[in-house]
Design a protein that fits this description.
By secondary structure, the chain is α+β, with helices and mostly antiparallel strands. It contains five helices and four strands, in the order H-H-H-E-E-H-E-H-E. The chain has two domains: 71 residues; 103 residues, Alpha-Beta Plaits (2-Layer Sandwich). A hairpin with a 3-residue loop joins strand 1 and strand 2.
């Protein structure tokens, strides 16, 4: 009985073996394709990150070029004109502007200026300093000395009697600008 059952199914055994081999090969191909798809997804995520970084760098370059256009170079005449404009807005007289030292670093430079000003009161000098620090150009006030100027010391007693008081100040400020 058993031999007769074997002879009955002997033609189907090669077919079953072929199906099993085909399933093993198909499973192997499928697992290889899943690995390839996974690696492609990882590469796609890396490419997206790289593109984001490149777009951030491009935006930064654009901001730097806009900053250079808006703030110009460290040309002394431009800096002096800016200080004079801010002084006029604050109703402060600029007595003298003297360039001090310039510090050049890799990406930017710092030009120090000593500015002597006078005003009818301390509030206008404060408004002038506030205008400098809030300017489109980058000005940093390093030191500030307030007092009665030598040129107005004689007039001080006369003005004080009349109720007017001229206040002077010496301000050391730094102008920061991007180097080319």
């Amino acid at each position: 009985m058993e031999i007769s059952d074997f002879s009955k199914y002997k033609n189907q055994i090669p077919n079953i073996l072929i199906i099993i081999v085909a399933l093993i090969i198909g499973g192997s191909l499928y697992s290889n394709q899943v690995k390839k798809v996974g690696s492609l997804k990882v590469k796609e995520q890396e490419a997206i990150k790289v593109n984001q970084i490149i777009s951030e760098i491009a935006a930064s370059d654009k901001q730097i070029s806009l900053y250079k256009q808006a703030h110009g170079s460290g040309d002394m005449s431009v800096l002096i004109n800016e200080v004079n404009d801010i002084a006029a807005q604050a109703q402060v007289k600029v007595l003298a502007i003297r360039p001090l030292n310039e510090t050049a670093l890799q990406a930017y430079a710092k030009q120090e200026l000593e500015v002597s000003v006078s005003a009818p009161d301390s509030h206008r000098i404060g408004k002038f300093i506030s205008g400098l620090e809030n300017s489109e150009k980058v000005f940093i006030v390093g030191s500030f000395t307030e007092g009665i100027s030598q040129s107005t010391a004689d007039q001080y007693s006369r003005r004080q009697a009349a109720g007017a008081q001229e206040v002077s100040a010496r301000i050391v400020l730094s102008a920061i600008f991007i180097r080319d």
